[in-house]
Q: What sequence folds into this?
């Protein structure tokens, strides 16, 4: 089991799915994530903010053009 699932406050399925999507395609948009996960873009923004605040993902570029998952660095 990945580190972030064992020792983390991230236990929400949407957050875990978002991390997986970012690992698969770092340039994925919030709208694309929302469509794939069948949730609203607002919910995606909420979870992205929480993930950034907890340092599970990081923004690359001023306009969030790319994101990077930090889960590999944690394991």
A:
């Amino acid at each position: 089991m990945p580190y972030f699932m064992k020792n983390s406050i991230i236990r929400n399925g949407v957050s875990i799915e978002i991390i997986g999507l970012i690992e698969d395609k770092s340039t994925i948009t919030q709208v694309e994530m929302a469509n794939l996960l069948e949730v609203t873009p607002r919910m995606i923004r909420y979870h992205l903010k929480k993930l950034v605040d907890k340092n599970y993902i990081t923004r690359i570029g001023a306009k969030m053009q790319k994101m990077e998952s930090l889960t590999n660095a944690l394991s």
In short: The two ends are 10 Å apart (CA to CA). Residues 10 and 65 are 24 Å apart (CA to CA). The chain has a mean pLDDT of 77.
